[in-house]
């Protein structure tokens, strides 16, 4: 049975102190290296160690397991703040926390005791291994299989676009335990899958943006796992368990979108006040003011939608619609604001010497990741209709 959800809150003063600590860390350690690391697509090993010390790998893990036990609202604010300057590194701990959430929410007591403290400290790091070459948004189309063999399962298949796939050491692995099941989702299982014999890493995938975090292929060839690594210990629950963590993932993507939208706005605002044309700063031109007004409104609306969804999550309510709305709107806000910021920067926006080009490359990912925005709109509509039946 899933663990009973625990409602979490944080004292406003404690939250303010935590966010101030994140601000100082970003200002001193993150912003100065982001451009160089992004351009080199270099893994930020030192930054990862700093994130361990800050407790970010245990941000949403309960304190009883060594985590910070933060509510989703506070977690979202942390992600927003970091993403203003370097969105990619938030993915290093987000995918990891979705693995932890699957174990914390659905795992057996021995599974929680064995894994969560190691995940909270960052001793073990990883993510979700869901996507396959022919199965992204349609998770029921996966082909990776797990065959029971005594007290083990033998797993064969390939996963792709797995964040932390190269640098991580353990993953929540979605497989088919019964390929003939109908409906398909009833034949799936989610496993705690550490790297060991039979588990190899394929190529690193090159990307337009979202640099410095590794995205890789995972290959399983006669990979043997003890049966007690099946999360929850019961076959047929994997699809529900995997998608049960997507609300937190979508909140993270929404928060990233807010961060990029706000970062693009900040860069445009600063540049528009120092760049002059026709004898005055371009922020005094009506065309630029129209852009800045729209950008500020989009960023603000995205932030409020995200915090609203996080509040519902923290209350223990079903929030797939709210999280979908936040993810959809905030990711589109990030994309629009990054484009407008680049336009305000003019030719300099196209230069690698200015940070706006990184935001412009990072933003499209949020419209695709954790479920495409096309899928989000359909899910929002279905849930909206369900909540508003004709009486």
Question: Any descriptors?
Answer:
9 strands, 391 residues, 4-stranded antiparallel β-sheet, 3-stranded mixed β-sheet, 11 helices, alpha+beta, single chain
Could you describe the 3D structure shown?
The structure is a single chain. The protein has 391 residues and is an alpha+beta fold. The chain has helices spanning 12-40, 45-54, 72-86, 90-106, 109-121, 238-244, 246-274, 286-314, 320-345, 356-368, 373-387, and strands spanning 126-129, 145-149, 152-163, 170-176, 188-194, 199-204, 215-226, 276-277, 280-281. The strands form 3 sheets. A 4-stranded antiparallel β-sheet has the order 2-3-7-6, covered by helices on one side. A 3-stranded mixed β-sheet has the order 1-4-5. Strands 8-9 form a two-stranded antiparallel ribbon. The longest helix is centred in the N-terminal third of the chain and has 29 residues, at 12-40. The two termini are 35 Å apart.
